[in-house]
C-alpha cells in the first residue's frame, strides 16, 4: 500500500513506538489519527508533524472504554471519509509475580491490550470491506512466545493478541483486508517505567532497539503488506526457538533470570 495519502489510525501515539510510527507515517505523507489519553502530548505531536504533508487528527480518550474505541473509528471515517490502516499499538505492562498481581491490574491490562484491539478492529472491518481495502496491524511482543518472570500476565495478554490476530487473518482471508502481527523485543520507551506495580527498576533487557527502528518496520509492513514481523534476527530466534523448544526455553530462563518465588 502507498503510505502517502493513506488514512492511518495509531493508538498509543503519545509516547514510544506509537509516537515514532506516527512520525514516520507523517514523513511519508500519510493522514494520521493519533490516539491516547494524554491530550496535551497529542497536541504537541500534531504541532511537531505539521511540517509534513497530510493532515493529522488528535483523539484523546481512554481505550479501556469500548465506546471510545468505536468513536475513534467512527470519527476517523466522519473526518476523512475512510480508514485505510488501523494500528493497535496502545499497551500496558506490569511488574509483579502472578501470585501477587492485583486483579484490577490484570483487568486493566486485558482492557487495553486485548479488548480495545478487538473493539477497534470490529469497528473498522465494515468500513474496510466497503472501501475494498484496509490493513489491521496489532502490536504483540516477542514475550507472547515466552513469558518471563514478573511479566507473565502481560505475556499472556500478548499471546491473546497474537492468537486474535492470526484468527482474524484466517477469518478475513477472502476479504481485501490485510491483518498483521508485529513482535517487538525490548524497545527504548517509557513502557517499562509506566508498567503497573513497577518502580522503573529491574528491567530485563536482552537487546534494546530504538522506537524508530520498530516504527520503520511497522510502516514497511504497510508498504509491503507483510503479515508477521519481528524486528531483529535475535527477536526472530527468540520467538521461533521458544515455540519449537519450549522446555529448553524454560531451562534458559531459569538459568539466567529470577528463579521464581
Ligand atoms: N517497549 C517495549 O520493550 C515493548 C516490547 C514489546 C512490545 N511492546 C508493545 O508496544 C506497544 C507500544 O509500547 P511502548 O513501548 O511504545 O510503550 P509506551 O511508551 O509506554 O507507550 C504506550 C502508549 O499506550 C498508550 N496507552 C496506554 N494505556 C492507554 C489507554 N487506556 N487508553 C489510551 N491509550 C493508552 C499511552 O498513552 P497515554 O498514557 O497518553 O494514554 C502511550 O501512548 C505496546 O503494545 C507494548 O506492549 C513494547
Task: Give a short synopsis of this structure.
The protein is an alpha/beta fold and 261 residues long.
Rounded to an integer in angstroms, the radius of gyration calculated over CA atoms is: 18 Å
For the record, the CATH class is Alpha Beta
Strand content range: 15-25%
- Poorly predicted residue ranges: none
Q: What is the number of helices?
A: 8
The ordered string of helix (H) and strand (E) elements is: EHEHEHEHEHEEEHEHH
Percent of residues in helices comes to 40-55%
Q: How would a crystallographer describe the biggest sheet?
A: 7 strands, parallel
Helices and strands: which structural class? alpha/beta
Overall pLDDT metric: 94
CATH H-level homologous superfamily name? NAD(P)-binding Rossmann-like Domain
Oligomer: single chain
> What's the architecture in CATH terms?
3-Layer(aba) Sandwich
Could you characterize what this model shows?
This protein has a single domain (7-256), classed as Rossmann fold. The chain has 261 residues and is of the alpha/beta class. The chain is 47% helix and 15% strand. α4 packs parallel to α5 and α7 crosses α8 (246-256). It has a seven-stranded parallel β-sheet, sandwiched between helices. It has a two-stranded parallel ribbon with strand order 7-8. α2 links the parallel β2 and β3 (56-60). The protein is built from eight helices and nine strands. The relative contact order is 0.14. The longest helix has 29 residues, at 103-131. It has helices at 16-27, 39-48, 66-80, 103-131, 152-171, 211-224, 233-244, 246-256, and strands at 7-11, 31-36, 56-60, 85-88, 134-139, 177-183, 187-188, 209-210, 228-230. Residues 12-18, 36-38, 41, 62-64, 89-92, 112, 139, 141, 184, 186-187, 189-191, 194 line the site of NADP nicotinamide-adenine-dinucleotide phosphate.
